[in-house]
Specification:
By secondary structure, the chain is α/β, with parallel strands linked by helices. It contains eight helices and 16 strands. Helix 1 packs parallel to helix 2. The protein binds flavin-adenine dinucleotide.
Amino acid sequence: MDQPVRKRRHSASSATEVDVLIVGGGPAGLAAALYLGRFRHRVVVVDAGESRAMLIAQSRNCPGFPEGISGPDLLQRLRAQAAEYGATLVQDQASSIEPTVGGFGAETNAGRIVARKVFLATGVVDVVPAIPRLREAIAKGSVRLCPVCDGYEVIDRQVAVIGHEAQALREALFLKQYTQHVTMLARYLPDFSTSTRRVAMEENIAVCDAFKKFVPTDSGYQAVLKDGEMRHFDVIYPAMGCRVRSELALAMGIECCDEGYVVVDKHQRTSVDGVYAIGDLVRTLNQIAVAFGQAAIAATDAHNDFAFGYE
Ligand SMILES: Cc1cc2nc3c(=O)[nH]c(=O)nc-3n(C[C@H](O)[C@H](O)[C@H](O)COP(=O)(O)OP(=O)(O)OC[C@H]3O[C@@H](n4cnc5c(N)ncnc54)[C@H](O)[C@@H]3O)c2cc1C
């Protein structure tokens, strides 16, 4: 993301005028930039550089990469592909976007950008517990954040799920399709409810309340129980949800649901005319393939609106 912003057309106030300002340079924002570039629109992507995809050591469910691909490699390819079709990439945190006559304006460290439409692709941040050497563990695969992404990689492994009641149970049930060795661990919250325990028992999922801490080992983690017993797990899945990065959307008066996800229609349009939302920021399956799909839908809708004034 270190290409300098290219100023294409200048107004009296020397702002960079573009057709679309994309906030967020993860898979969603970059795929939208690619589509819009190929539709021959002027696009700037402003990105703070904290894509969830940066945490992916090797994705094995990203279509088109049978040997797998790391998140950083995928992002690099997406940046190159978007730049190939004219998108300008700016590394910055967009702190505000205000309405202007006929569009929107934003101050960035590459100057003021004025755009006819805005795409929000700011994603989410995973809530994670205080596990020692977390980043390293995610890279090694001994802590995993997304069973849809990598449940296949834990077939027959010893797995612990920690997190909120219903969320932990849902994730544990999902993982049971891959391994018989699933344990739900309670630590940060009160013990699991009777109904959760009953379902877990029926599904042969172990439940462990008296859990104190994790100690990293070469092959995973030892969970230290309150009575001093040690239990080994190859993989830990935190099931603690995420924080939606919807600050910009909220500041723009865009409708968001209670959990913070931006509400969109079938074209990814938000409640504010001219603003789209795509990727994890929208309540959806948090997946790269979904981010790509939503980017394609939104970009095509925006293009048709520019070209013909209809969808
Ligand atoms: C450990 C891990 C493994 C995963 N494995 C897989 C997998 O194998 N397969 C799969 O399909 N999915 C996987 N995912 C999920 C995948 O990473 C996400 O679904 C995907 O990254 C979502 O893309 P996005 O563009 O919506 O958001 P992100 O990739 O999170 O990008 C959002 C970007 O917006 C930027 N941003 C936020 N606010 C601002 C602002 N105000 N100004 C400027 N920039 C801003 C952020 O810095 C970030 O760069 C995994 C996720 C994790 C955490």
